[in-house]
Amino acid sequence: MKHRYTRIASAIFAVIAAITPSFAGETAERIYLSGKGPSDAVEWDFFCSKGMNSGEWTKIPVPSNWEQHGFGGYDYGRDKGEKSDETGTYRTKFFLPEEWKDKHVRLVFEGSMTETSIKINGQPVGATNYGGYVPFRFLLNKFSNVEYGKENELEVFVRKKPTNFSLDEAERRADYWIFGGIYRPVYLEVLPKAFVNRVSIDAKADGSFKMDVFPQVQQETTFRGTAPVHIDEVVAQIQTREGANVGKPMVAPIYTGAGRVRFETEINNPKLWSPEYPNLYQVRVALKLEGEEVSHYTQTFGFRSFELRVEDGLYLNGKKILIQGVNRNVFDPQHGRAIDPEEAWNEARMIKAMNVNLVRSHMPPTFEFMRACDELGMMVITELTNWHDPYIDTPIARNIAYEIVTSYQNYPSVVFWANGNESGFNLEIDELYHLYDLQDRTVIHPWTHFEGIDTQHYPNWEKLQEKLASKRVYLPTEFLHGLYDGGHGAGMEDYWNAIRASNNGAGGVLWCWADAAIARSDQGGTLDPSGNRSADGIVGPNGEKEGSYYTVREIWSPIQIAMESLPSEFNGLIPVENRYYETPLNECTFSWKLVDVPSEFDRAGKAVVKTEATIDGPKVKPGKSGRLKLSLPSDWKQRDILELSAVGNNGVEVMRWSWPIDGQDEEVIGDEYPKFKDGSRFKVEVGEAVWHFSPKTGQLVSTTVNGKDTGLSGGPNLYVGNVEGAVDVSETWKATVAKDGKSVVIDSKGDRGSSFRWTIASGGRVTLDYSFEPSNDAVHYGAVGFGLEEELVESKRWLGKGPHRVWGNRMKGPQHGLWENEYNDVSTGQEWGEIEFKGIFSDIDWMSLALKTGASIVLDAGGEAEVGVLSPKIAEGVRDKNSFGGPVRAYWRYPQEGGLYLFHKLPGVGTKFAHAQDNGPQGQPSVLTEPLEGSVVFTVR
So which residues are the signal peptide here (predicted)? Predict the structure, then answer.
């Protein structure tokens, strides 16, 4: 077979010449053999043993997962039966300059799935690496087959299915997509013979600084006699990120070599690291010989103290803090586990903007994401990848635990180690975290109680109350499991209020950040979330913000405004609560706008900003409340909307609010007066519209405009439903009709005490006033509704809260404004990119439904109605709790008849693991003790 090789030696040599003129006093150099991510990946030769495009040599970009380039086969971790077990063989060439003979040269892989061994120039080099989620390296100097001054052939053999059973079970039979290949960067690390291999730092909030330095002197020493002196001193200097020295240098003698050198010092009043003030420092460590610097090493760190106080809570820098966390796995819909550095930063910024202060990942994140967490201010739980039993065999697990701690321990964002997940805990390696970690961080076992912290997942409302009533510190490292449009924000307000009111609730970590839908190369790039297994994100696979994103953002906003509407005597004073951990509100800025919106009959008009200003926040300390003063113009009441946004001290918007301004005059749309049509007193013509009512019941039969049906009919009807389904609330009606001046009035009374009145007035305005007697049942929903032909509806435009729909247990998030969208029938988690057209929209002033006939149905609800539009589609998928796909409870109860509703009791939406009624009071059924009363004005044009 003829083999082809990737020839990049000349490019590597050019890079070396540009960046490595001398190693005297220098630090490590990194020479990439691959790209840093998918966007700059480098082609290597590749041979796949089985599956797609197997059996011949070709090319593949590195880093990447081979499935995304049409090789091998796709598997989800929880698939039954045997999974794909193809192997991949990679080949490339690299050049080692002659002068590197005296250097320390490592070949580093940051990640390769799942078992990896290498050959150089046809000979094996080093031991096989087991484990797909942590870096590993090979020291090249020790191997005689490595040639300097020449090209070397690198061959990498990757097994997707490892030969070790426990590793296969731990990393590949998990609840996520399984991939193969070299998916993180590969590079040469070139160091001088005497260098600092790594450091371990413990920098506390009181300014105390402790550091272990691990130097290496890679030069021969004698077996007998006196060893030559290669370095004689280690000097460490704390610096700002800009390189200015902080405190005095730390100096320690070193005799030839040492396994560890420890430094301790004190820094006066250091700037501390926290999610709100992510202050960072660096320490520069130099190895010297007779006063001359041989090499140096620089490490970024932060001063901070994070501690678990048993039976109390979590403390950061001496102050109690609540975890506002989200689970995130390393995933990209186009590239699998291969992530570009800029993508990692963008995702971190987006998570931070949702007011999250902690990220947990089942798999160790990329170093670029870690740097983003350090600099943006997000705490991190770093985890050994092991999902359920069995746990990884101890010899392999020890290596992985060592790599996790030594790779991530100096990031101040890391506050916990997680030794596996959900029963995948190798108890034999717990001690290693404490042995390797100078900070001695707490080790958690997610889903159980360990080292003084209870992390049990997915408590229902009853279990949550039990946990919060105990003395144990409680931090569910997964809760409110999202699925489709359920979970996350649904039930969260109840949960969060309970956690904040407790003594031992430490916060919580939502599952999870993004829908893990992979663009499958064997299906033309179709996004596949593996049914209901991975459609559980707050955002879609490409970062599409779903409804719960805005709910979470508002509930976790560090600035809270409880004002639901502008009071009648509003004078520009807005009550604010500061829920920041340590930021006073005067370090934030607020911007406000006065906005005018077109009328409900203007189908093309846009919102217009009339006045806007930016002001500093009030002097309100964390944990306190105060008032924000807006200097509004004298004519502010003539505007339609007041918008307010808050920007934190990092320049990022933390929340946006808006309120309607009452007092606008109604638009006069014509002076046509109603008249009876065709001799029927229950068929009324007004302008171009004809309203036909039932003489028997007074209910609407049909509505036409210019002879074309609008699809609005059959109401008002009372719709209520309990856990078993729709409740029979039918009544016998008696209707009467009369003239009231120039209006036509139709009254109807039911035998259960309900009543409604139609008033058909000039200008085509048809007012419905209704009062329905409630059911005696505890109901999930209660609504007054009408028929609406779905196939006639083209789009909707509304003034009210939006753009996302709401549920009874997910009211937070949407804001008042002018919104519009085209008809769609999307189901979140199975389709992405469009905001749902169907569902319940809150605080509606008016809503205009554009029809395919060219007509419109305009509903004027007065600003407080919860309007349901058509029946939203529930995502398809297995719902049997005993199925291998897992229990699915992310659905809702909703009227099955009608199409346009005025809700008085909103249904809740469930999560993957719990019905809506199990996740707090907002989602529970209740008995409606008061009549369902309201008033709405219809106009059809």
Answer: 1-24
Find the domain containing 774 and state its range.
Answer: 675-940
- As a whole number of angstroms, the distance between CA 646 and CA 558 comes to 10
- SS3 track for 327-382: ECCCCECCCECCCCHHHHHHHHHHHHHCCCCEEECCCCCCHHHHHHHHHHCCEEEE
Distance of CA 245 to the CA centre of its chain: 38
- 389 with 518, same domain? yes
Nearest to residue 114, comparing CAs of 50, 56, 184? Answer: 184
pLDDT (tens digit per residue) in 506-530: 999 999 999 999 999 999 999 999 9
- Asked whether residue 546 is domain-assigned, the answer is no
Does 135 share its domain with 51?
yes
- Check whether residue 626 and residue 480 sit in a common domain: no
CA distance 33 to 185: 8
- The amino acid sitting at 767 is T
State whether 391 and 411 are in the same domain.
Answer: yes
Question: Tell me, what DSSP letter sits at residue 434?
Answer: H
* C-alpha separations of 753 from 495, 733, 735 in Å: 39, 10, 14
| DSSP collapsed to 3 states, 761-782 | CHHHCEEEEEEECCCCCEECEE
* Beta-bridge partner residues of 653: 647
| 66-100 confidence digits (pLDDT tens) | 999 999 999 999 888 889 999 999 999 999 999 99
Looking at the fold, whether 448 and 481 belong to one and the same domain comes out as yes
Q: What domain count does the chain have?
A: 5
Are 484 and 451 within 8 A, CB to CB? Answer: no
Residue 82: CB atoms within 10 A of its CB come to: 8
Same domain, residue pair 726 and 762: yes
Closest among 448, 441, 449, 445 to 420, alpha carbons compared: 445
List C-alpha distances in Å: 287 to 294, 580, 681.
Answer: 6, 43, 100
Together in a domain, 173 and 24? yes
Final residue belonging to a domain, choices 133, 162, 191: 191
**What is the rounded distance in angstroms from the CA atom of residue 830 to the CA atom of residue 436?**
44
Q: Please report the pLDDT score of residue 290 as a whole number.
A: 93
